[in-house]
Design goal:
There is one protein chain. The chain is an all-alpha fold. It has helices at residues 2-41, 44-51, 56-83, 90-104, 112-125, 128-154, 161-181, 184-195, 200-217, 220-247, 254-269, 279-290, 295-312, 314-322. It has one domain (2-325). It contains 14 helices and no strands. The radius of gyration is 21 Å and the shape is globular. The two termini are 37 Å apart.
Length: 326
């Protein structure tokens, strides 16, 4: 019997990295194809030329707005933890959020950094499933806030039917995910059947995390406040894009920035590319093109958005290095 268990563990250890590598290769391929298509329409020279005309005041404002969004995110995360009876300081959670934001720029998806902050939070709480549950719950509420923000933006922006459909899909997808976590018993049955006894330890850990998410989402007062703050967060993301386009001398309306920023954020969260590269640029070219922004300026705005966020997240690398001793 012990030999069988040992063999199963070896099989898991061998198969998991293989699946991870294959997934990364596929995402890298998607990013490469998407970037090739984008820069087949827009030359790199045009992007560099547009970036050289940046207004320093609007650019600095974009950086300031990113940090305001980081602190706001840490605060709403703190509210969800408090609703579950856990107390972590805002500075500590802001530290975790910055570290996660830093890793988001290097891991295969835009939610990869969430794994890092879930790990750090789990250590602080001395309860890994609860740490994961707090991050997942915050993400779920934020995703719903993202869709609702885009819907609000529709009231103030002159957009086409494509944007309306995209917003409806985003709201529907986030609502479906929340619904799944509100019915954890079905998720538990599905996981146990799919993974079997061999992965019993993993299933038990995951079930605890799912139950933690469920219990968090049932804290209605806290969830409502966090949902409102999530909408405020998405407005700040839109404001970053607004500042970037202003810095480029392109007067895009704030309403259009709200709708398109939200839709693009939702698309880049889907794990089909490396950190959203390629998909994000294509999204900017298509959606902001609907607002009359030239493709070269839209793609430049996408590149600058990534750079502003990536540079703002660099303190996360320092904080991560300083915290390795823990």
């Amino acid at each position: 019997m012990s030999e069988a268990v040992e063999t199963s563990a070896v099989d898991v250890d061998r198969s998991a990295p293989t699946v991870s590598v294959r997934g990364t290769v596929v995402r890298a391929f998607v990013s490469a194809i998407a970037l090739g298509l984008v820069f087949g329409r827009v030359s790199l020279v045009e992007v560099v030329s547009a970036a050289r005309t940046l207004d320093p005041v609007w650019t600095a404002t974009a950086f300031a707005v990113v940090y305001a969004a980081v602190v706001l995110s840490a605060f709403k995360w703190q509210l969800l933890l408090r609703a579950r009876g856990y107390t972590l300081g805002l500075a500590r959670l802001t530290r975790h959020y910055l570290v996660g934001l830093f890793f988001n720029n290097f891991l295969p998806t835009s939610v990869g950094g969430d794994v890092v902050r879930a790990w750090d939070t789990g250590r602080d709480l001395d309860d890994a499933p609860e740490g994961a549950a707090s991050v997942i719950a915050e993400r779920l509420v934020a995703s719903l806030g993202l869709g609702l923000t885009a819907a609000i933006g529709l009231l103030f922006a002159n957009v086409g039917p494509q944007a309306v459909v995209a917003v409806a899909i985003a709201i529907g997808a986030s609502g479906l995910l929340i619904g799944l976590f509100l019915a954890p018993s079905r998720s538990e049955i599905m996981m146990r059947k799919a993974m079997g006894a061999r992965f019993e330890g993993v299933v038990d850990w995951t079930v605890r995390a799912v139950r933690g998410v469920n219990e968090t989402l049932r804290c209605r007062g806290a969830v409502f406040v966090v949902l409102v703050l999530s909408i405020a967060f998405q407005l700040l993301v839109a404001l970053v894009n607004y500042c970037i386009f202003r810095a480029l001398g392109e007067p895009v309306g704030f309403g259009e920035c709200i709708v398109y920023s939200s839709v693009i954020s939702a698309v880049t969260m889907v794990p089909i590319s490396i950190s959203g590269h390629g998909v994000r640029e294509a999204g900017y070219a298509y959606f902001f093109g609907l607002a009359g922004v030239p493709a070269s300026i839209a793609v430049t705005g996408s590149v600058l958005f990534f750079l502003v966020v990536a540079l703002s997240a660099l303190p996360g690398a320092v904080l991560f290095a300083l915290g390795r001793g823990r």
